[in-house]
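Hi support team,

I submitted a single chain yesterday and got back a structure, but I'm not sure I'm reading the token output correctly. Could someone confirm the output below corresponds to the sequence I sent? I've pasted both exactly as they appear in my results page.

Thanks,
R.
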Amino acid sequence: MNSELKNFLKSIHEKAEKIGRPLWFMELCGTHAEAIAENGIKNILPKNITLVSGPGCPVCVTDQSDIDVMVGLALHGIPVAVYGDAIQVPGNLMSLEEARRNGADVNIVYDITEGVEMKKEKPNLVFFGLGFETTTGMTAWAIRNGLIVYSAHKLFPPAMEALLQNKKIRVDGFINPGHVSAIIGTEIYAQFKIPQVIAGFTGEDVLIAIDKLLTQIISGEKKVENAYSRLVKKDGNPKARKMIAEVFEISDATWRGFGKIKNSGLKIRKKYREYDAEFVYRDLISKIKKETKTKPSACRCGEVLQGIISSKDCPLFGKACNPDNPQGACMVSREGSCSVEYRYDN
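Hi R., thanks for writing in. Yes, this is the structure output for that exact sequence:
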């Protein structure tokens, strides 16, 4: 550890001791969770600071019903395209990977342009649009270029509001997501009266964020600080937001673990409904939803995403549930809390 990092860590310990009470800081990005684990940050922090993972993994918060729709479309002979980290998420019937093994035309893409190109050979291809503001702009571009999309895209700030309203959750400060903030900017977070720091993704970035949160608590401030100014600007990316607003409109959305969160989703506008899978395949999707039965599971991914429990509190963690046999979304995605915990603590 270099001298600068030692100074940050010394400052953190001194400030935490001065505060003297237990503190819970929630990181709101799966990449932050991985940086914390990779750098062993939890092991070097004062004992009164607990880092909690929040709903920062877009694959993880995608609701079971959306997985079921995509699996259903694939099993009915419609070619689908999906980002690789979503293909193994279990649905009530099966995962998209299992559907592919059963002969369904399920395609992994690593870039949205691959989906646009694939449509030339498979005109009725449906792309599974999921993620926060970071990826939504790319999906909007693809829709404008003729790609049919099933939208499970979500807006992040409403989830922060839902977290703060949940009495089961203790949060003294947020480490805000860097990539999302690069799109939406910094001012939108001012509505949340809690210490917040927008952070980058190195171990040093995380320590800086924790130090700044402690400073705010000592001074009694509740504000938004941008510690990732090398990428995040006050007004974010207006061009990307304009494209998103042209193609999508705000709607309610269901999040895994949270249930329905008002004004947290993005549905495709009527102007582009010929590229909206929910319109194009409305009868089939309605049938899929009616016929799909909820399968009981002991997986507690939904509670992990809210910070109510840790990954290790789930009875399946590391036993029935592991990266080779994931029982829930939190173990599937590389950004999922359970996957991070398993890979770095086993």
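A quick pointer for reading it: DSSP finds 17 helices and eleven strands in the chain. Let us know if anything else looks off.

Best,
Support desk
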